[in-house]
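Backbone geometry:
***
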Amino acid sequence: MSQPLIDLVNITKSYDSNVVLDDLSLSVKENSFVTLLGPSGCGKTTTLRIIGGFESADSGKVIFGGNDITKLPPNKRQLNTVFQKYALFPHMSIADNIAFGLKIKNKPKQYIDDKIKYALKLVNLDGFENRSVDSLSGGQQQRIAIARAIVNEPKVLLLDEPLGALDLKLRQDMQYELIRLKNELGITFIYVTHDQEEALTMSDTIVVMNQGYIQQMGSPEQIYNEPENAFVADFIGESNIVDGLMLHDELVEIFGAKFPCVDRGFGVRQPVDVVIRPEDIDLVKPELGTLEGVVTHLIFKGVHYEMEVTTPDGFEWLVHSTDMCPVGEKVGIHVDPFDIQIMNKPASEDEEAVSIDE
């Protein structure tokens, strides 16, 4: 197995008495697109800043290409950062903004000019060399910030919520642009966001963080379809998370009804958390369902209908379907065994954290 490009080893970081990262270890492979995803305050930006050298860990190591770079300053590391606030210099032309890092490195003029043209072409802004920063839209400024980073030929590009200031349509366009850039440049992207759609759209690997811990790490498909705990299931996409009783292998009881599932190894009559995605619920005739309920809410979302179905126990099931059931209609709830995800109930918040050993 090839050596990871970046290894964070037992990183701990506190601000005063607030522990932001708690013995965090993480490996990043070369030429991957890794997204650090989680709510505000989970430690994702601090992790990025420690990789970039803008913050120092209280303990632990940062290994880059097999070398310990824990104490190296940012300008000595083979990486560049694109921030949410693009930090462009308003008194400089676009060309001078892009050339800033190259001039500091005393690169020859012809080399710099070639790099500027190459970078502008790569971000689809040919001919913008002499424009001023103020004449650009938010999306264009963001592309210039990326161009300024990539001309330095970093092995890793760190992106700290770079699309946060853009409107929805532009943000979606830029997601595809970033994927294209990553594929064309062949460099490693480490991306920070709290936007689950962004993470699912762009990443090879998603690292879900909460309270300074890594909760789960895997491909977008793994994170979405096989969440390892209730936090991940709730944070990634929409979920119905209910208390269940594992009667035995491949059979779980939910609100008194028995649902076949495919999970094994949870013991006999053990309390568990059950996750069922809204799109995995089929609404059928009441007598054909495992549970019965009444449609209590209905919204048309364009691609599908979003409905709430309230069962006699008072639980409101979220259902996404292309078939509409009107409010007040009695329905049955059916779920295929493969679409039921069983998880152990954590004994404590700390137990929810998932250790990563790769």
